[in-house]
Amino acid sequence: MGQRKLIAFLVREHTNVFITPNADTLNMSVPIRETKTIDIEKWIEKHSGQHEDLVKILQSNKFTNKHRRDLVKIIVSEMCSEYGNTYPSKEYKTSVAKAIVSTFSRLSSKIEGRSHESFYDEVVGEGYLEWRLKTVRKHLPRKETSKRPNKKKIRKQPFIDRPQLTESVLIEKISEMKHTKPTDSVKAQIERLLYETRPNRHTEIKSSESITVSDVLKKYPRLKNYDGEMIDNEFRDVFEGHDILLARFSTYFAPRIIAYCKNVASYLLEKLTDFDINLKAIVVLPLSCCLL
After folding, report:
1. Across the chain, what does the average pLDDT equal?
2. Domains of the chain: which residue ranges?
3. pLDDT at position 218, please?
């Protein structure tokens, strides 16, 4: 029994999930707005009643992830107010990200020429600002999420049309990925490396009859990090338009797959103590096919 049929066997109902479109697939540049000076400190001052001394904290060595999250919430709130909707253009998000690290140098990435990419990486369309924007959109009324500019869509190059890297470049990318510690500050960098190596990885998986999930994770270990987000990106890119499964995987499918394996073959989970529930479910899913 195939993996999709197995999931259907494990889950007896299906609920449609509204997937918010990626703002970067839309052409939404508004030159007038983007020529305005972006004053990060002034934006923070507007929220000083709730976040006192945040500027001083971020300029010191005493800031924590909570302070960074507070900053991102304030910035995204002001971005939406300035831009007029929750779908600011890629150019605007890039400008804001650069303004943030220019104001608070301690928040910048250590990658030369790419110091802003942890807040927004225009190459992969991800970062703290984009993730917060997605969260904001999820809490808007359905009719509000659809209020985006009716401009001609600009799509990323389809996965099937992207060329594979040469062997030497692939080895270099994999080496960089393996030697980069998976922290929040380099998340966008790791996403970009996985994006660039994806055509090679997909071809390798399809052309081999013996490759296992463990083989793939050993070669590309960063797929295991960030609570399944990297695997989610993999699925969305390769199977564009079929992301409902991944949208519900962590909260709906994964617990049921794990519960099924505990009942029929608990030994499958014994060696996966260091894996989170999402990765456990992905690893045991193919092995479970022979148990039905």
Report:
1. 76
2. 40-139, 161-237, 246-290
3. 92
